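Let us begin with a simple case.
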Amino acid sequence: DGLHIEWLVHDPDGAEVTSCQVQVSGALSWAPAELGNGGQATRTAPGSCKWQAWLDNLAGATIYELRVCGCNASGQGRWSEPRQFKTCDVPAEPTHLCCSQRIHDGFRLEWHLDDPDGAVVAGCQIQVGTGLSWSAAMLVEEQGETMRRKGDTWQATVMNLSGATQYQVRVCGRNASGIGPWSRVQQFQTSDVPQEPTNIHICKRLPDKLLLEWEIQDPEGAAVSGCEVQIRGTL
């Protein structure tokens, strides 16, 4: 929400520059800029002809047209040629969105998102789509926040979904400048139900019972918790 600008203004012989003014172009006219540091532009170092100022309370990801002038005991100097400057961008579109782990009622997601210059990504939003609508995803992480794993890699675990169901997912980043664009929509599925058992056989016979064995694979993220056995009757 701000800009740090620098410029050169030389001290005239016998009347050094005592202050500088900064103006921002509006829709129809120029207006004084709102400056930090007590509302004053300052020299970058004592005796230097380079000046600086912080412009506060600007809108993020916005281009501003600025001009500056110097003042001394003889009066106000000429305005500089207008220059355009842009405040920090919102985050870019996240990339490489993928599922790193499936669970019975959700999935763990990872994606990449670079920090814009001067406005680091503060967090991300995740939406889950079913049918024609989108809704905010419920997350496992503390306080329902996405987490920066390392560098530009982010992660989150989405929960409270239906098992063996495919969902559309999209993510976006946010920083002090605002909310960035959504990522490309990806489809991910929660853990599958168990597959059909195989290799069913009798391992022991008794007069009134049978001991059966079979094999069944554990789906990713949802181990088989039990099996049912049925006997077909005459009808």
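The second case is a distinct protein. As before, the sequence precedes its structure tokens.
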Amino acid sequence: NVEATLTLLMPLTDPWSKKHKQVTRASSGGVPFNLSNSYAQPLTHRELVELSLARGDQEIVDAWNHHSLGYTPNGGSQDLREEIAKLYGPSITADHVLVFAGAQVALQTAAFALARDCHSIVFTPGYQSSVETPFHAGGEVTPIVRRAENAWQIDPHEVKAAIRSDTRYLLINEPYNPAGTLMSQDVQEQLKDIADRHGIYILSDEVYRFLEHDPNDRLP
């Protein structure tokens, strides 16, 4: 049946958030104020417009007021993909960009496309929706533990040691959740070289890009 088929294709894991809520809920003896939520309270439409105008963003307000409400291409409108491509330099164009309605859908789609019949490497602790995607895709996965004594940095030597003949997928998250650290450009280059030598795809989850305290630390 459908339920059995879905369970077979995507084995479910107990979400971290479930245990987190049980531990932190004030009514259960947890904390009175939970500062660990990863979202902010949303603005109203008026507040968003007023904030934009206060920042001098009249152009974006005009675009908001005059944009079409028709259907857009499934992979994102041309203008949006062009703007995203500009973030990554002249070698990336709109044709290299695919837009999703949410990052979790993008992570899951990438895993099912690239990590179904191979070995993957992920890093823990990490955001569950990122780390679990290769497991859901049905491939074999080796988690590498990031440690406080190493400033939560990825050790390229541990990556090399985890590689197998069928390793094809490496999932990283920089800036790193939950520690907030950022790998050096040297480590980034080492990981790229390792991936090139072994024919490995790198999925780089950059949801916190542009939140660096110093823009000079931003990875290319």
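The chain has ten helices and four strands. Residues 71 and 77 are 10 Å apart (CA to CA).
Keep these points in mind for the review questions at the end of the chapter.
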